[in-house]
Amino acid sequence: MNQDFIEALDQLEREKGISKDVLIEAIEAALISGYKRNFNSAANVRVDVNRETGDVKVFARKTVVEEPDDPRLEISVDAAEQISPHYTVGDVVEIEVTPKDFGRIAAQTAKQVVTQRIREAERGLIYNEYVDREEDIVTGIVQRQDARYTYIDLGKVEALLPFHEQIPGEKLKQGDRVKCYITKVEKTTKGPQVLLSRTHPGLLRRLFELEVPEIYDGVVEIKSVAREAGHRSKIAVHSRKPEVDPVGACVGPRGMRVQHVVAELHGEKIDIVKWSEDPGEFVKHALSPAKVVSVDVSETERLARVVVPDYQLSLAIGKEGQNARLAAKLTGWKIDIKSQSQVESADAAVVPEERDEREGPEPDWSAADEGSEIPENEWAAERPE
């Protein structure tokens, strides 16, 4: 190695952010292993790489003893004093043992170490970049598919989109540009692994943040999201400013904003409802587009009993219960939906309460007509006129 090599390390430090000292320490550690392997040396050696010139030297480290048992590890006091009169028993003496052809080995080893460290550093930079973007949205290009994943090129890394995280019925082709939600970033032996999703509710939230400036600015807030990917979704929005209509802001002029989101999700239907602090009002909005007659909430059971017109019952419940199910996810309340006729029938079927048994039997007024006394009871009965 020479001065050019040291300059190359300086350049790597500037461009890749890899410390020159860290690289040299790694090279020295690798050279020790290479020296032992090639020259059958004992374990106690030290390799020194000059930070200025790049010169490499190998030193054998020997302990000063009275009578050495292993010449590779120990040196006698007399031999040590010939090197320096200051050495005493117990000191460690370093003797240069650099082989003549060690420069070639050093160059090969240094190249391998630097290449490996550059690769590790790049992986670390990519990991740090994407781990900070977890729960964020990214745009990539479909590269290929296998039995488990669709591989999405994000530029610096090839991310994985599992089949169960793809929108049902969606067919992605090579070269398609898609927006995905980063669910997890992991470190692996092959570098950082980025896992994506197209079904996560967070994707819907991020898409609206991209399309609606009021959400990005914080004027409108998405309070909750309920999604059944590929079919229907509901989002609850709230405005921090009374003059801003949160639903209108998300829909956009002539529905353009929501249409862009729907197009990205391949036609998934989206209901945008107004959030409310009042649970009953929120549940009523969440069941949109169905009209609601009344909502009775039970805080203890966290249950909302909803009454809808007869002709709105199927709409409120939705196909296979989808509308009611999404409304329950959106609000966090259990929802029991009944039609007006069902409620009226139930009320009519209620049996009037039986008279309290303590009232006793009805007095026998016929006995009183024949001159007998009125039977005594716990309550005072008077004969009717």
Question: Could you characterize the architecture of this molecule?
Answer:
The structure is a single chain. With 385 residues, this protein is of the alpha+beta class. It folds into four domains: 3-129, NusA, N-terminal domain (N Utilization Substance Protein A, Chain:P, domain 4, 2-Layer Sandwich); 133-197, Nucleic acid-binding proteins (OB fold (Dihydrolipoamide Acetyltransferase, E2P)); 202-275, GMP Synthetase, Chain A, domain 3, CATH 3.30.300.20; 282-350, GMP Synthetase, Chain A, domain 3 (2-Layer Sandwich), CATH 3.30.300. It has helices at 3-16, 20-39, 77-83, 102-131, 201-211, 213-217, 246-251, 256-264, 279-286, 313-317, 322-331, 340-348, 365-369; strands at 45-49, 56-65, 74-76, 92-96, 137-145, 149-153, 158-162, 177-188, 191-197, 220-228, 232-239, 269-274, 294-298, 303-308, 334-339. The chain has a five-stranded antiparallel β-sheet with strand order 7-6-5-8-9. Strands 1, 2, 3 and 4 form a four-stranded mixed β-sheet that branches. Strand 13 and strand 14 (303-308) form a beta hairpin. Helix 5 (201-211) packs antiparallel against helix 8 and helix 9 (279-286) packs antiparallel against helix 11 (322-331). It is elongated and about 115 Å long. The termini are far apart.
